């Protein structure tokens, strides 16, 4: 009985240690690094050299059988190099069983591959490894002695090899060595799976067969060797993964360090791939993804909602599964055209770069293979090119014949093929392995990211250059002409009193375009800004004309609106005495912000930009139009001869630009609602010191909003006309939403609901205008006219809202004088007209003049405020109440007229119920018929 049988506790302890080692997930990077840094001699230490073998065998001869067995187990248990381990196993098995030589096969799938072949006790490691790689013996499971052992997991002991049908004598015939006896056993892991087969042949002690004792020792030793081999394989995988990660990290670092030049980037990637995979040549083919600049620009502003078509998933295809004709005569694909080819040879450090023509690509077999990979999106691994294609294949201008090729598509982050990477010929002369494919696939991913980023960087540089040219052209065309500037410089600038600039009731209707520019310059002169900040007068004139030129001719948000906002700010500063809270630099910034706050307005709001995903909405996600207005302001200031801030110090320049930016952004009502509560809290707490930065910003923001909506406080005839301009611009946006977005616009932008606008104006005043003007007038009493004017206009809008409720229309005419329909029947019509006139509220002589509410007829009689009725609307409650009261308070003739009116209205109500659908269908058409009349009247004010 051997030592293992007498002392089983030793085996149990050793197995516990080995099992713990097997179950560990991976080795640490420090262990892998130290292993990689070790000398080849240390990693190849094995009792293979004659002197070492004799000394080692002498020392082993002093041990008994049990101690010898345990010593050999310890010798292999700590070895992590798979080559050294397999060599030790064969040498030790030879010592234990006195075998002449042995071979060790490792399983890969269902194939045994010879790791070491025909190793004797005296065979050195390097010689054994080299011989095995040259032989490259592969045995399928179930074939030959080793294959049968792998499949059956049983030991085979053959006493006479040549009488056994499973023995293949081909190797004996080739080497001249005669095989007599064979002992072959499986090597299993701890899960019982066969991971290899060990085979020893011929005894050296003169016996003719392996004894039962040899078989028992052989089996027990291989049991421990299985655990060692699995540990070594796991370690080898960990080391390979560590090396791969290090290489990929270095590659990623190189890629993201070099993104300004595509040629240098691709050269660096190809050099890394060539050196890692030990190949003779490397090539990269880049596809033309943007065949023209229009596609490039479209791709940069493409909607994010568009989905990108994904290609087939990448898969490996061996050469014998691909028809040569399928590659050399592919279907023509117009979208795939190589524009640039990079080729790197083994002895070169610089890639050859050329732009191939279609004829060059048609002649090159390598290019045709690359095109096939690009069109299919598949990985192509060709192990023997010449036999597969029946001809020699060479690269462009290269005498190197391609023996094996690994070709892989390069994809970007959107799963689009942007190129093809190609490796040619392993330096070892062997085909590319699955491990090479796996590493190269990772290279291709990084290569795709790097190339895509570099291409985008180059495209961005080109677009920046284009943008610079476009800005130069834009600044030239957007700047006022020399003739207009010269004329304005020479013109006399009237006084502020002549233009009524100090009044909150300023009206621009009577001013021509030249007067609007002069009034603007007068505000700068009146605030002493020209002298204070040394603004050249010619620059100021050119800047004012340029700002005016950059407003689009939309119906409301145009140059005249900017002038009115600036004038309201001027009146607040001077008449409202708000200038005592501002520095001269802040006054300059506020006036500039008012004049520029709607530059290049398109007649549509921020919500419309977002819904349509316009380029502006892509540039600015919040306060879209306001950011654009400020950018236009900066563009004009940076244009030659337009910088009115040119004499300011750097600190003053930064501060005034900050004031301008914050002031323009505060005109976004969304910003107003965010800041309103903070401002209200300051006022409620009795705060009157607005000199700190945050409080000054709040005050300037409230003042900008007050000026932006200042038209609500103008005299009624002005407010009425301005409201129509605003409504008409809103209606145009509503029409665009219906046409482009196929959505129903909100009420204030729906042309079919225009008669609801008086009530919406009341809501606008109550929610935004009155609260703001009230708190400002209570804190700064000199701007109370804004609050009072708004209150007065609210009364007018409320009155119109009531009239709309009873059937009147307000939007179609400057004055409410024409009914939608004419009453039939002369006698009834006269009495109804008389009755409605009588029902009007008692008014003093002269009331309503100039308001557009009460007008005189041609015959001199006065038309009351209830002079127009709509047939499709019922009388409001208040009107019905008045009519009912008149039945008891008026004379008999008036009572009769009222009864006629009620009877007529009752008939019309029944008629409306039967024809409402038809009327709604024709409503849009009737609106379009009336619209030219409105546009013609509004053209006088644009």
Automatic annotation (TrEMBL):
Family: Belongs to the cyclic nucleotide phosphodiesterase family.
Enzyme Commission number(s) from the entry: 3.1.4.-
Taxonomy, superkingdom: Eukaryota
Name of the molecule in the record: Phosphodiesterase
UniProt cross-references to InterPro entries, sorted A to Z: GAF, GAF-like_dom_sf, HD/PDEase_dom, PDEase, PDEase_catalytic_dom, PDEase_catalytic_dom_sf, PDEase_CS
CDD domains hit by this protein: HDc
Residues annotated to bind AMP: 557-561, 598, 708, 761
Cofactors, names only: a divalent metal cation
Annotated residues for binding of Zn(2+) 1: 561, 597-598, 708
GO terms under biological process: signal transduction
């Amino acid at each position: 009985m051997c030592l293992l049988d007498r002392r089983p506790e030793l085996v149990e302890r050793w197995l516990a240690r080995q099992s713990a080692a097997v179950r560990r997930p991976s080795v640490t990077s420090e262990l892998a690094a130290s292993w990689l840094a070790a000398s080849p001699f240390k990693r190849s230490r094995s009792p293979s050299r004659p002197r070492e073998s004799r000394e080692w065998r002498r020392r082993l001869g002093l041990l008994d059988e049990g101690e010898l067995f345990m010593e050999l187990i310890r010798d292999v248990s700590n070895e992590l190099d798979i080559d050294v381990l397999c060599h030790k196993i064969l040498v030790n098995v030879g010592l234990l069983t006195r075998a002449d030589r042995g071979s060790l096969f490792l399983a890969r799938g269902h194939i045994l591959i010879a790791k070491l072949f025909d190793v004797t006790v005296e065979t050195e490691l390097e010689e054994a490894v080299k011989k095995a790689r040259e032989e490259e013996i592969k045995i399928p499971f179930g074939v030959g002695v080793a294959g049968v052992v792998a499949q059956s997991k049983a030991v085979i002991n053959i006493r006479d090899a040549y009488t056994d049908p499973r023995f293949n004598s081909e190797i004996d015939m080739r080497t001249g060595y005669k095989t007599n006896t064979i002992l072959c056993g499986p090597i299993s892991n701890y899960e019982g799976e066969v991971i290899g087969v060990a085979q020893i042949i011929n005894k050296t002690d003169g016996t003719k067969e392996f004894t039962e004792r040899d078989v028992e020792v052989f089996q027990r030793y291989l049991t421990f060797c299985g655990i060692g081999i699995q540990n070594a394989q796991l370690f080898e995988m960990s080391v390979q993964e560590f090396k791969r990660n290090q290489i990929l990290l270095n590659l990623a670092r190189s890629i993201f360090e070099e993104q300004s030049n595509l040629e240098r980037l691709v050269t660096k990637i190809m050099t890394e791939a060539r050196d890692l995979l030990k190949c003779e040549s490397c090539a990269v083919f880049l596809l033309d993804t943007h065949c023209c600049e229009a596609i490039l620009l479209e791709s940069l502003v493409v909607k994010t909602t568009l989905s990108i078509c994904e290609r087939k998933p990448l898969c490996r295809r061996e050469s014998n599964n691909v028809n040569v004709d399928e590659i050399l005569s592919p279907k023509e694909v117009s979208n795939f055209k190589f524009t640039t080819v990079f080729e790197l040879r083994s002895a070169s450090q610089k890639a050859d770069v050329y732009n191939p023509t279609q004829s060059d690509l048609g002649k090159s077999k390598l290019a045709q293979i690359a095109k096939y990979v690009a069109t299919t999106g598949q990985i192509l691994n060709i192990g023997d090119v010449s036999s597969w294609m029946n001809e020699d294949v060479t690269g462009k201008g290269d005498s190197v014949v391609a023996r094996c090729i690994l070709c892989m598509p390069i994809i970007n982050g959107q799963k689009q093929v942007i190129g093809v990477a190609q490796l040619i010929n392993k330096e070892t002369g062997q085909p590319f392995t699955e491990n090479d494919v796996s590493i190269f696939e990772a290279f291709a991913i990084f290569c795709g990211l790097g190339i895509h980023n570099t291409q985008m960087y180059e495209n961005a540089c080109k677009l920046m250059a284009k943008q610079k040219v476009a800005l130069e052209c834009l600044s030239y065309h957007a700047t006022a002409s020399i003739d207009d500037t010269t004329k304005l410089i020479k013109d006399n600038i009237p006084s502020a009193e002549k233009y009524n600039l100090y009044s909150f009731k300023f009206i621009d209707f009577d001013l021509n375009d030249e007067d609007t520019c002069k009034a603007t310059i007068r505000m700068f002169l009146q605030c002493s800004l020209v002298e204070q900040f040394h603004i050249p007068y010619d620059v100021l004139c050119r800047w004012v004309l340029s700002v005016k030129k950059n407003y689009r001719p939309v119906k409301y948000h145009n140059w005249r609106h900017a002038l009115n906002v600036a004038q309201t700010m001027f009146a607040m500063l001077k008449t409202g005495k708000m200038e005592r809270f501002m520095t001269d630099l802040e006054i300059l910034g506020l006036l500039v912000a008012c004049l520029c706050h709607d530059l290049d307005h398109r007649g549509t709001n921020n919500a419309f930009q977002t819904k349509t995903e316009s380029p502006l909405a892509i540039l600015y996600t919040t306060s879209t139009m306001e950011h654009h207005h400020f950018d236009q302001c900066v563009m004009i200031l940076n244009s030659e001869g337009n910088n009115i801030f040119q004499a300011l110090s750097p600190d003053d320049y930064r501060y005034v630009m900050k004031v301008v930016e914050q002031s323009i952004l505060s005109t976004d009502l969304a910003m107003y609602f965010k800041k309103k509560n903070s401002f209200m809290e300051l006022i409620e707490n009795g705060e009157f010191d607005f000199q700190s930065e945050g409080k000054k910003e709040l005050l300037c923001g409230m003042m900008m909003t007050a000026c932006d909506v200042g038209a609500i406080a103008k005299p009624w005839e002005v407010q009425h006309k301005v409201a129509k301009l605003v409504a008409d611009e809103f209606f145009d946006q509503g029409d665009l939403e219906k046409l482009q977005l196929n959505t129903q616009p909100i009420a204030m932008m729906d042309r079919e609901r225009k008669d609801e606008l008086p009530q919406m104006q009341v809501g606008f005043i109550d929610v935004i205008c009155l609260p703001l003007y009230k708190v400002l007038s209570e804190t700064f009493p000199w701007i109370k006219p804004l609050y009072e004017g708004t209150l007065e206009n609210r009364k007018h809008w409320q009155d119109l809202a009531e009239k709309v409720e009873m059937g009147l229309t307000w939007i179609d005419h400057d004055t409410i004088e024409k009914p939608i329909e004419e009453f039939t029947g002369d006698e009834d019509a006269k009495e109804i007209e008389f009755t409605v006139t009588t029902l009007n509220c008692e008014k003093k002589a002269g009331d309503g003049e100039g308001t557009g509410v009460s007008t005189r007829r041609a015959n001199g009689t006065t038309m009351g405020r209830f002079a127009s009725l709509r047939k499709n609307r019922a009388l409001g409650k208040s009107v019905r109440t008045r009519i009912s009261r008149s039945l008891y308070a008026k004379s008999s003739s008036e009572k009769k007229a009222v009864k006629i009116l009620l009877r007529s209205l009752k008939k019309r109500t029944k008629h409306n119920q039967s024809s409402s659908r038809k009327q709604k269908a024709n409503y849009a058409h009737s609106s379009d018929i009336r619209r030219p009349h409105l546009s013609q009247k509004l053209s006088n004010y644009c």
